Amino acid sequence: MKDKFRNVFWFFGIFAIVVMLLTFDMDYAELWHNLRKAGVWFPAVVLLWVVIYAMNALSWYAIICDGKSAKVPFWKVYKLTISGFALNYATPVGLMGGEPYRIMELTPYVGASKATSSVILYVMMHIFSHFCFWLASAVFYVLVEPVDVAMGIVLGLVVLCCLTAVYFFMKGYRNGMAVRTLRLLTHVPFARKWARRFVEQKIEVLERVDAQIAELHRHRRSTFYLSLGLEFGARMVGCLEVMFILNILTTDVSFVACILIMAFTSLFANLFFFSPMQLGAREGGFALAVGGLAIPSAFGVYTGLITRIRELIWIVIGVALMKVGNGTGLKQK
Asked: How far apart (Å, rounded) are the C-alpha atoms in residues 287 and 305?
């Protein structure tokens, strides 16, 4: 990627961090008190994401390699994974800031069509794993918690929506989604000009990308399920974050309960996808989730706070990594 384009993404990330710091709804004395209260659990929460991002990167790397020797080193994919998620967290609507960045950074290594197809496939896999996680959590809830009529209706709607999403994702895997996805980006701020120009100039490339997406699902099922398994596994490992934080306040919380809390929180937060870092939605989701499991709602608010600080730290790390290790790969047309 040219430095001028990289700098656009970098300055946007810096701007987003400044805005988040200025709008943080807590004075720094109280913030420091809460971090001291967390003790060693807060570093454990931050370091846990080294593992989670590694699993995310491996999922994407499996798609890039597709059973072959990749022309891009894993550390580069790992770096782009962290930086891409940092941009996504800071971008209103989400999943829009980091994807053009990843495509543009990966293109010199594997070519435009492969970079685009791998990023689109990974985004699809990342979102697809959300629905798989919510489906699994609905089953866990029925197995471990009493279900009344109201909750039965809610769970039924969740399962119905997830199964519908799974159907459309599988249809997208069979037919490809590159052209439709890039045309969607033409309506997104900061990406619309690049996406419009890319679609106009690379329509034949995008059609090849759709063919590659369909090819992966039809003839390389092992890579498909390896990538999906890593993404689903990353979500399960991410539930340890809730357990680590709640262990600061109580030891009477099971891992299954943490899965349910994370599932409900992520579902609730994604309903407010238009908010940068899902500000407010994440905290409200945690409070409602723990309240529904007979855990004090204050525990949920505290969990949301620690999670928010962890996200901010990794956003800073991701934005900083955009200026590190930017050597060019093998040039391809």
From this structure: 11
Spell out, as residue ranges, where the chain has pLDDT lower than 70: 1-8, 10, 12-13, 15-17, 19-28, 67, 69-70, 91-97, 176-178, 188, 190-191, 269, 271-297, 327-333
What is the spatial distance between Cα 11 and Cα 94, in angstroms, rounded to a whole number? 17
Please write down the long-range contacts of 98-102, taking CB distance under 8 Å and 24 or more positions apart.
Answer: 99/123, 99/185, 100/185, 100/191, 100/194, 100/195, 101/1, 101/9, 101/322
Q: Range of 160's domain?
A: 3-321
Looking at the structure of the chain, the number of domains it has is: 1
pTM, rounded to two decimals: 0.81
Q: Are 154 and 211 in contact (CB under 8 A)?
A: no
The 10 Å Cβ neighbour count of residue 330 is 10
The answer to whether position 333 is within a domain reads no
Residue 69: exposed, middle, or buried by beta-carbon count in 10 A (0-12, 13-18, 19+)? exposed
CA-nearest of 4, 176, 235 to 104 is 4
pLDDT at position 226: 92
Q: State the Cα–Cα distance between residues 316 and 246, nearest whole angstrom.
A: 25
Question: Is residue 220 a part of any domain in this protein?
Answer: yes
Contact 314, 82 (CB under 8 A): yes
Task: Break the chain down into helix, strand, coil percent, rounded to 5.
Answer: 80, 0, 20
- How many C-beta atoms lie closer than 10 Å to residue 148's C-beta? 9
- The answer to whether position 312 is within a domain reads yes
CA angle (233, 280, 59) in 5-degree steps: 20
C-alpha 290/C-alpha 218 separation (Å) is: 41
Q: Is there a domain that residue 328 lies in?
A: no
Residues in the chain: 333
- Count of Cβ atoms closer than 10 Å to residue 300 Cβ: 26
